[in-house]
Amino acid sequence: MIHLTLFLPLVAGLILLLLPSLGRMFALLAAAVTFVLSLILFAGHRGEGFSYASQTPMLEPVGVYYAVGLDGAGVLLWLALTFTVLLALWIADVPLRFMALALCMETGLLGIFAARDLILFYVFFEFTLVPSLLMLGLYGGPERMRALYTFALFTLVGSLPMLGAILAVRYLGGSPSFLLSDLLQHPITGAAASWVFVGFLIAFGVKSVLFPLHAWLPSFHVENHPSGLADTMGTLYKVGIFAFFRWAIPLAPEGFSQLQGLVLFLAAFTAIYGAWVAFGAKDWKNLLAYGGISHMGLGLMGVFSATSEGTVGALFLLAASMVYTGAMFLFVGRVYARTGSLEIGPVRGMAKSAPALAALGLFLVMAMIGLPGLAGFPGELMALLGAYKASPWLTFVGFTAIIAGAAYALTAYQAVFHEQANGADKPDLDSREWVFAALTVGALLLLGLYPKMFTELLEPLGKAIASILGGAS
Amino acid sequence: MNAAFGMSTLIVLGGFATALTLLAFVVKAYGTKWLAALAIVLAALLTIATWGQPFEAFGGLYRIDTLAQGLTLAALFGCLWALLLGPSEKFEYPLLILYAATGMHVMASSTNLVVLLIALEIFSLPLYVLATWRRDERGFEAGLKYFLLGALSSAVFIYGIALYFGATGNLTAGHAGSGPLYAAAMTLMLAALGFKVSMVPFQWWTPDVYQGSPTSVALMMSTAVKAAGFAAMARIFTPGGQGEWGLALGVVIACTVLFGNLGALVQTEAKRLLAYSSIAHAGYIGLALYSGTGGPAMVFYIFVYAAATGLAFAVLQGISEGDVPNQRLQGLLYRQPLLAVGLGIALLSLIGVPPFAGFWGKYLVFSEAAKAGQYGLVVLALLTSAIAAYYYLRLLGMAVLNRSGEPTPAPSATLAGIVIFSLTLLLLLSFVPGLGLNTFSVGQ
Hints:
The complex is a heterodimer. Chain A is mostly helical. Chain A has helices at about 1-20, 25-45, 70-90, 95-115, 120-125, 130-140, 145-175, 180-185, 190-205, 215-225, 230-235, 240-250, 255-280, 285-305, 310-340, 355-370, 375-390, 390-415, 430-450, 450-470; strands at about 50-60, 65-70. The two termini of chain A are about 40 Å apart. Chain B starts with a helix and ends with a helix.
């Protein structure tokens, strides 16, 4: 079933690309079935280790396998991912081929979280880029070509050091294959370990928007289609935190230990820098882009603390931020549909004419800034708790970023929905948006009020990381 | 296996070439074309039918193994596409291609240097003529350049063979040796074959000849000729190790990947761009020469490369018989979606974006070189691959991201068939790379 779930979106996407006459319902159906399947996988997941593991040789003579499986993190991220894609396809007003590309991309993303072979991981990691570039190039804004070049440049150049690191991990470590289980038994040591970690750091830094590798993200979001579908998919593509947790840290623990101070500092700086720029942002997409950078910084602090709490928090934050950042971009897409503008300045006081829309916005903003009881809070808290063990001072910086988050998000919210209304009345939520609102609110409440349901799955993984790094410090 | 069956590929190719020449004034030009195509298809099917069954004839002068069969197959595809897409009003065109195909098959299937030399001439002479096919100034320039440099490279090859015989007392390729005489022999042969597969510094003819020749002939030069040339290189340079003259090979490969990729960055004409890309890929294929077990990796790479480059050239041929400035590709997706998709998959494969087949090819040859300890070359190859992504993606971007553009004729049924066949082959190797690698490793 894991294979079916994995490839169903790709197949559906390709069919839809060829036969657009199948229509929107076909895309929604595919996304819904994928979500239901991953719910079933979630329900049937055993507590520890990889469930649904399977492997078939792909290039046997050189040790490449098609090996997939879901551990606690994988199954949680699959759930968040398939849910968000369903949400995005449900609400976004986009051409059918655009939806088809989003479906193709979903397979790539699912594969990233499920791969148990390093080369297979790389394949999914890079494949996801193709639909992502096409979405930006085909449906983006006027300056899309520049955004496209920046994005492609960062990603492709970033993945080369990773490919070098991948080859080095296997051949210098002496592992018989690229399977995760084999590689873990042959961790790389010595000076090479630092270089290998740096190789991964560059590639995953791009995909977790670690300063200074974040520069592609703002133009990527600003130039993408205003509906928010491509932005949501781009948000889901920020898989760096997971990749550090799954591959970079366990495979080169020595390299990570040597660079831990530096990367923790970079992560903390990313958090505060993102929040600072977001505060001055003039339009929603910039604000969310930099806000996302800030959140990823917090998550990275958790992962780089290499403590059990930090890792659990970071992974939870990643899953939660998929849902709330994705929903936020889609919400902004709905605002755009009413006002024709993404700027924060000109539109004021929408709460008068569209109170339900304003309420949904408030809820999403609260989830984003980490109000206790909503999705953002548990992850941020645990990530920072973990980081505190590694570096109290940098954790203080992280807390400042959270406070700044409240400032920028609420300021923007206040400007658009409150203050003196201007312009014509805006329509309130229609029935499709009500469904969107209900699903989003439900999911964010579940993540916020009962995080234990998910963190239970992550705890053994966090402990495993901590033990690889030798104790809880 | 009996001798007739073992040599069936050669018999079919040579037999049809001879018979069609004798009947050239009886059979109509159109008939010659289809009979030649039939011969190539038949030869390809026979190659597949005898797959994995090693066979020797003439005391080892003619030797069929998986390397020979894999590269013959790649060369035959290149020849077949060139034949089907090329002009059909004159009988010379199919005949010349059939002769070239025969020579390429022999080139892939011998370890004797004299036979290799003869094979080299058999497939080079038709190509010199084909390069001038358009009979305009650029065509003559292309033909003359190709012929003069080609004749020079043959002379160098003969000189290399003579020195090799002096150093090892043997005309069978692949003997290890030492001393300045041996190093000189290997370097001379590297130069001669480097010319055929366009490796730096023997690549100067490539862009001009590709641009001046008909697109279908450029297709053949970039796919079939490379397959044949590298077949000979694998037999000459790999088994004996790289010893003292290995530095020469390393320098040539490093210059080739650098020059090819940097040169392609500034090209504004698609055929020239693909010419530089074919230079760059010659460098990547060269990495597989380092490994004693690199046969399957090299065959895999060449096969995938030939399928992708053949597909790209076929698309260009569908747009224009002559020059194709990059701008001509604008908005191709909205006018001829099949051609645009074909070009897109071909270019993605040439970049080596996973999971497209080119990625697996690159991965295989890079790891062969890494296993042989050539880390510097692998790093250089990785870096230049990133440069390559820029120019391929720019071309692809033009084809799919713009809506406006000049009209493009609808693809003929033949072209559509070639595009669909190549796409199927590429996608199959993309998603089931193990199938390809296992096929090319049979009997090794």
